[in-house]
Every structure is written in structure tokens, then in C-alpha cells.
Amino acid sequence: MKVIVISDIHGNLEALNKVLEYTGKLEGDKRFVCLGDTVGYGPNPAECFKIVESLTDQICLGNHEDSVLNTNYDYQITEYALEAIRWTRGVLDKEIKKATTKLPFQIEENDILYSHATPDQPMLWRYISNARKAYSSLIEMNHALCFVGHSHRPGIYSYRQLQRNSKKATLSKDDKTIVNVGSVGQPRDGSPLLSFAIFDDKDWNIEIIRLEYDYQKTMEKIKKANLPLFLAERLARGV
């Protein structure tokens, strides 16, 4: 079965719809897993959360869902993110907020772990954005495979082959691998192309998919919502 792993949608409906358009054409059985941060930053948090809920019940808690619920984090959040979080708190209804309280930090199945942040101590919201940071988590990891998001930067990091340059790989069950699936709604690796992963759980093949989408439409929505202009501009630059 193809496992479509998405993360960090951040209220970007145009990007999410592009993912669904692409995956809708895939042949064979498929299912979705979401690693969290469906809300935050973007102009359509409620719409995106409801779509993800309709796709899967396997949804991890992201730091932005956590921040919507818990104002204790406000002093730790950057100015732009905090303004967006406060706006998001105002537009999400009680039903969605209640649903986010039930989201787990991690989802475990067989020898695979799904987590928004690092596999070790996920509640600390640490980033995996390069090989060095991946290595410290790989040492502590007890699973053969872990999918993460959070950094918005895709990458495949195996213990025996720490940095993979390819966006495709056949993984080994005898090794330990962390796959950062990147961000659907706000990529930060210098490219505006959205990012997610498709995993074949039979052959253990993984591919990180990058797609163009109408980010200019999302930018206009951000401006119309009077969210920080930086949140719109960064979509075009992938930062």
C-alpha cells in the first residue's frame, strides 16, 4: 500500500488541493498520514483541518495546533508566528479545537514511527533539518523508520548512509532511517515547490514529491486576512 505522508500544511488550501489532485491519480491502495501543523500561518486553517480529518484519523499533534490551545507558549513564538496563531485561534471553531486536544504526539505502527518533531522527546519541538541533527536522533531511535516534518525541509537520513542526495530511496529494515517529508504549505529549502512523501510499505520504497501550486492565490488570501506580509512573501521564495 502507498502511504502518503503529509505535514505542515499551515492553512494553505491551494497547496493541499494540489496534493490531493496528484495523489488522486495514483493507482492501487493508498492511505494518508498527517504529521501535524495543519493550521498556523496560512489563511484557511479550518478548511484544511476538516479536509485532513476526512482523509485520515492518523494525525499527529503539531506545535501550531498545540500553540492554538495553549497560550503558555506565546512568549517563545516569533512575532510573525504569534500574530498568525492569535488570528488562527479566532477563526477555528470549538469542534476543531476539541479535535486537536485528542491528537497524539506520535503514531506507532510495527517498526515505523510518525512524529511531527524528533522521534526522541517530540514535545520539545526540536528540528531535523540536516544530517547532523538527524544523527543525534538516529542514535536514540528505536524504530527502523521515522517520518517527521516541522523543519519544512525535506531529506532522507539513514544511520549507515546519513545524507542521501536523491529524493528516492529503497530503505532497509535492518538500518534506521528518518524521512523528513518537508512542508505542503510553507517550504523553507529555497524552493516554493510544495513537498510531501509517498512510502510503499511493502517494498519500503520512498519518494519525496515536489509540486508547483498557485501560491500567488494563497498570498492574496494572506494579505486579505491582514496577516503579516512576510507570511505571504515567503511562499514565493521558499524561506
UniProtKB/TrEMBL annotation:
<dbReference type="InterPro" id="IPR029052">
    <property type="entry name" value="Metallo-depent_PP-like"/>
</dbReference>
<dbReference type="GO" id="GO:0005737">
    <property type="term" value="C:cytoplasm"/>
</dbReference>
<comment type="similarity">
    <text>Belongs to the metallophosphoesterase superfamily. YfcE family.</text>
</comment>
<dbReference type="Pfam" id="PF12850">
    <property type="entry name" value="Metallophos_2"/>
</dbReference>
<dbReference type="InterPro" id="IPR024654">
    <property type="entry name" value="Calcineurin-like_PHP_lpxH"/>
</dbReference>
<dbReference type="InterPro" id="IPR050126">
    <property type="entry name" value="Ap4A_hydrolase"/>
</dbReference>
<protein>
    <submittedName>
        <fullName>Diadenosine tetraphosphatase and related serine /threonine protein phosphatase</fullName>
    </submittedName>
</protein>
<feature type="domain" description="Calcineurin-like phosphoesterase">
    <location>
        <begin position="1"/>
        <end position="200"/>
    </location>
</feature>
<dbReference type="GO" id="GO:0016791">
    <property type="term" value="F:phosphatase activity"/>
</dbReference>
<dbReference type="InterPro" id="IPR011152">
    <property type="entry name" value="Pesterase_MJ0912"/>
</dbReference>
